[in-house]
From TrEMBL:
Highest taxon in the source lineage: Bacteria
InterPro entries: AP-4-A_phosphorylase, FHIT, HIT-like, HIT-like_sf
Pfam families: HIT
Name of the protein: HIT family protein
Keyword Hydrolase included in the entry's annotation: no
Motif Histidine triad motif per UniProt: ranges: 169-173
Residue positions binding substrate: 101, 173
Domain spans labelled HIT: 76-184
């Protein structure tokens, strides 16, 4: 993670700038169900998101726990208790799972998390280390098959000082990269354009996920 976007990825979370209001800024005359972003897993950062299909599912800013040590507030602990669709889970393994980041740096930004609420990579069991690695590899294959990125950033931010938004629950980032994806928007407007809605992305990845692979560890 040495390029510009990688630097952004591990930059300290400033927290969303107050979040966006006007959640219902959707198509004309349509009923819009506004979902509480705090109920989704994800890792807040300082960037706003510009959702180019103009039917916004949410934007309320942060879903960050008040008490990072409290597993009950942890979005990565809460996610697996909900449906795949609600929690944006792409795949459930034995000791770890794959979920879309609610605050993506790019379309298709996935997180590979152990189910256990552990912060540090050295705290993982052998099984968890293996499965996080296997799921990361499969995630790359799936994203390649679906979205054809030119590259990836992979990595874990360990500790808040290193940029982890939810430092208490380890998660490995899988960020697909395209030529020219780091355009002027993040610099000028602190906003990223994301061309695909999260629900659609989740469905495409889940459908492309090889059945049973890394799930029957
Ligand atoms: Zn947790």
């Amino acid at each position: 993670m040495t390029d510009r976007e990688g630097t952004t990825m591990s930059a300290a979370d400033g927290g969303p700038d107050g979040g966006a209001e006007g959640t219902a800024a959707a198509g004309p005359g349509k009923d819009v169900r506004v979902e509480d972003s705090a109920a989704f897993p994800g890792e807040p950062d300082a960037l706003d998101r510009l959702w180019t299909p103009h039917r916004m599912v949410y934007i309320q800013g942060e879903g960050k726990p008040d008490d990072p040590a409290d597993a009950e507030q942890c979005p990565f602990c809460a996610g697996p208790g909900r449906s795949d669709e609600d929690a944006l889970i792409v795949h459930r393994g034995t000791s770890a799972f794959v979920i879309l980041n609610l605050f993506p740096y790019n379309s298709g930004h996935l997180l590979v998390c152990p189910y256990r609420h552990v912060a540090d990579y050295t705290e993982l069991t052998e099984q968890e280390v293996l499965e996080v690695a296997e799921l990361t590899r499969t995630a790359m294959r799936v994203v390649r098959a679906v979205s054809k990125p030119a590259g990836f950033n992979l990595g874990m931010n360990q500790g808040e000082v290193a940029g982890a938004g939810i430092a208490a629950h380890l998660h490995q980032h899988v960020v697909p990269r395209w030529q020219g994806d780091a355009n002027f928007l993040p610099i000028v407007a602190r906003t990223k354009a994301l061309p695909i809605l999260l629900a659609d992305t989740r469905r495409m990845f889940a459908e492309a996920w090889p059945d049973g692979e890394a799930a029957d560890g």
